């Protein structure tokens, strides 16, 4: 081995012997619950302002504006169900369900957006159930009216076929003529 090779080996081994200054040992032994003295504690306003989903980001203002959809859906609770759109409320329900799940997956996790989407889905479910119940009641009324009309027609046809009428005197006069 030449002197040059041993010099390189010596320099390389020195780097292995001492840990790199940017590496921190990982493990329970070195973890601590104390706050670092270099990081000053922030006020609530500063934490909200500097948060990844804070006031100065779209992650805050999009949910705030989306509450208008929830409030519009809640105001539709007072409208009669025949004036509500089933497809529109199904879309609100699907939007609420899909985006609630998405808000909990993305980074940063946006709980405010998840909450507004959850309530949007709830409003949609209530409205869809109101519309479906109204449609069933209308269909049930129409079906019962059809059944009653068919029954009356069947009775009338049976009476005419048997020759029995409700007014026998009129039937006798008609038979004489």
Describe the structure.
By secondary structure, this protein is mainly alpha-helical. Helix content is 68%, strand content 0%. It is built from 6 helices and no strands. Helix 3 runs parallel beside helix 5 (111-162) and helix 4 packs antiparallel against helix 5 (111-162). The longest helix is centred in the last third of the chain and has 52 residues, at 111-162. The chain is elongated. It starts with a helix and ends with a helix. The model has no long low-confidence stretch (mean pLDDT 78).
Identify the notable features of this structure and list them briefly.
177 residues; mainly alpha
Summarize the structure.
The chain is mostly helical and 177 residues long.
Q: Could you say which overall geometry the principal axes of the C-alpha atoms support?
A: elongated
Overall mean confidence score, pLDDT: 78
Which spans of ≥5 residues are poorly predicted at pLDDT below 50?
none
The radius of gyration is 39 Å
How many helices? The count is 6
What is the distance, rounded to the nearest whole angstrom, between the alpha carbons of the first and last residues?
143 Å
Main beta sheet, described? none
Structural class: mainly alpha
Strand content: under 5%
What order do the helices and strands follow?
A: HHHHHH
Helix content: 55-70%
| SS elements, strand count | 0
